[in-house]
Amino acid sequence: MKNSKLMNSFKEAISDINDGATLIVGGFGLCGIPEKTIQALKEKGTKNLTVVSNNCGVDDWGLGLLLANKQIKKMISSYVGENKIFEQQFLSGELEVELTPQGTLAERIRAGGAGIPGFYTATGVGTPIAEGKEVKEFDGKTYLLERGIVGDFALVKAWKADTLGNLVYHKTARNFNPLAAMAGRITIAEVEEIVEAGELQPDEIHTPGIYVQRILLGTDYQKRIEKRTVVHA
Amino acid sequence: MLNLPKGAVNMKDTRLTIVKRAAQEIKDGMYVNLGIGMPTLVANEIPADINVLLQSENGLLGIGPYPIAGQEDPDLINAGKETITTVPGASFFDSAESFAMIRGGHIDISILGGMEVSENGDLANWMIPGKMVKGMGGAMDLVHGSKRVIVIMEHVNKQGKSKVKKVCSLPLTGQRVVDRLITDLAVFDFTPEGMILIETQEGVSLEEVKAKTDASFMISPSLILVEQVK
After folding, report:
1. Active site residue B193
2. Residues 6 or more apart in contact with residue B5 via CB below 8 angstroms
3. Residues B139-160: pLDDT tens digits?
């Protein structure tokens, strides 16, 4: 297979992400975020982005960088409480927010990637998030219709890739990344190590390369920790 | 069990009462999800002879203690974004799989914090109108999927007003989802017949529970018996 997935630079990898694009971004808090691709997007200055991601970084890191730079028009997230700039932009009306329960968000992205336009879940019945949504009863219980999400691009962080774009994640840095990878029309994966095809065991691959269009090697990862909890030996 | 850092266990007595009582809900062999904040502390009170696997909705079954200083891994956190470790037999998975476990009814017990609980088992714990909304995280999924939903909270708010309501005044997290409520004053069950007081905490009278509870509730026959024996 022609090896066209390896990109030379983050700048090149995101060159066709234009104003108004919808991005699905992996990560939970600051764990497993595509930090290099986000920085490149900040430098490019792409505006009016709709970003689907569980959280929105912190004020000076992760997606918070794009927020501070006023590049995000709308966020679809489950929890955004770690970010003061978010609060300011939301209250002033600059930023639109669609809060989605975490499991519903994960399944919406998975469904989008799996070609499923909608699904029913009991999550959110009788709460503010049910407003305007179709409801249906199954076996006497009420469910909400939730829509699948597809993104113009998915930005993903994995631990290792092979040259065909097969991905392996590390510990809880997996989180939303495999789902995002499925749901991007173009999926850009940044990784800490790239190996030759065949070096990853087929059984250990978390994301098959079919979902990944572009691969980048990142270096000097910051991997910031939000809450450092330790015991002293 | 979690080996919390010094300072974290300086809980108010009321919170310790709640956390200790909540730990009694956890039985050997269970798969358990503990919410962020006070519910996380329940892990410390699980007896050593009880083996459970704690689920973290960001993609881990088998949460271990906090790491020894210097061994923390930024790729290994819990749902509260704290650095953690894993126990032997732990597994990692993605967020959709995590919530398949939750929504699909595979988690035996979920312990969550609460702002208000109503007499029909409604829970409000994610937003206060007029204040910045932070988001519901995984709470709405957990209350619908877990086999058993336990809410722990202080019985009254800082102004002394009851948080155990006839009807929740705050936007709901879930409707008729609570199985058991544990407060610093009492323990209630929610049944098709209504809300039932099953225990009072040590040193708390039935009169005090009645006075500080807005919700209407029945009293378990076994509790009345205990009162009479006293």
Report:
1. no
2. A229, A230, A231, A232, B66
3. 999 999 999 999 999 999 999 9
